[in-house]
Amino acid sequence: MLILDFDGTITDVWYRFYRVFQDYWNIQGLTFDQYKTCKKVLTDDKNLLVHLTREPERLGSYEVYREFKRESLEKQDYLAYDVLILDSTLLEKISDYIVLTYRRSEKNYLSQLKNLGLYDLFFDRSVILDPEKQITKKEWLLKNISLKEFDMGRVGIIGDSEADLEAGLSIGAEVFLVKTGLREAERLLEGVSKSDGVTIVRNVNGFLQTWS
Question: What pTM, to 2 d.p., does this model score?
Answer without folding.
Answer: 0.93
